[in-house]
Amino acid sequence: MIEEISTKKGVTPAAPISQAIQAGNFIFISGQTGRDPETRKIISEDVGEQTRQIFRNVSNVLNAAGCDLNDVVRNTVFFTDLNDKPEFDKAYREIFSSPYPARSAIGISEIAPGAKIEIEVIAFNQKS
Asked: What is the domain class of 2-124 according to CATH?
């Protein structure tokens, strides 16, 4: 069964995409940037702050699916500057602990205006 997951506490996509899709026990969350859900503006130029906001948004979407950040199994991180990775890692360690989700980091030239990172998330709903 495939089901759309959506919450007003998450950032509403401007593009024709879903916040998240649950397929079986897996939840696939569309790429998130460090936007405030109410203002839709990037909250800071700081990569650490953008990371924290992204995972607040991800947490809200996961909660709408009956999950939380402990259910995250994989993150794909897109950086406009791979030199920001140490700052990202510092914030990431505040959010996740061992065993950490599997992760890839990819350098790209652009994301959304003002965004330095974008993160896609896959979670596994253990309660389904």
From this structure: alpha beta
